[in-house]
Design goal:
By secondary structure, the chain is mostly helical. The chain is built from 13 helices and no strands. The chain is elongated, with a radius of gyration of 27 Å.
Length: about 280
Amino acid sequence: MKPAKPLALALIAVAVSLTACQNREKRQRELAYVERPVEQLYNQAGRELDQHDYETAILLFNEVERQHPYSEWARKAMVMTAYAHYQRHDYDETISAAQRYISLHPGGSEAAYAYYLIAISQFEQIVDVGRDQGMTVQTKASLQDVLRRFPDSKYARDAQVKLDMVNDQLAGKEMEVGRWYLRSNQTLAAINRFRTVVKEYDETSHSEEALYRLVEAYLSLGMRPQATEAAATLGYNYPDSDWYRMAYQLMTSEGIMMDTSAPKRTLLQKLIPGGK
């Protein structure tokens, strides 16, 4: 009787995995018994990295640390190990290696890059707004860490670009939940979500819609002054947007006239309790 295909495939996968592990262990044993000058080891690791043999590069960078633990090359090898893991898309290993460097050399010349590697490894794992945004929140904190600690580094600009993308993602999640609350007639809960977007993510692409949704929500509750403030803020800041045109039509259909001459800061103070 022929074995089932899934079982055959599973056996092949196990065999391949075992072979890979054996080859890795063999290479580790070979490296362990070859003492070499630090520059030679480090440069060989760099060559393997350039040839995209990341696994061998990692082994060689580890050997730099093992054979020459107190050298400047060992410190650099730690960060390069993290980078090699990143190139393999082994993000957990990247973060672990970068954090190890930071814990041992917090003031090292490669610290900025170590922090940056942590942030971009988390960034690469962000999922769409329909799913949990825990990783997005972690990424935001890590990118802010890069900008706060190393504002003049060569990584700061990219960190800022990615932070803007992360904020847009988080705002998108708030909007998704807010719309769901609005459709479910949980209007107060929806208002809280939309106000969060206006207050914390006002520079994202979602702020216009958030203001319009606030107009909708406030009017549905009969809160005409709050609806007026939200519509006026929308009109003052986005006078040419489709969201403002819809808000204007909605307000005028309720017989409400708006004054858009007040500055944004004052309007946001009225819209967000406790605003400064």
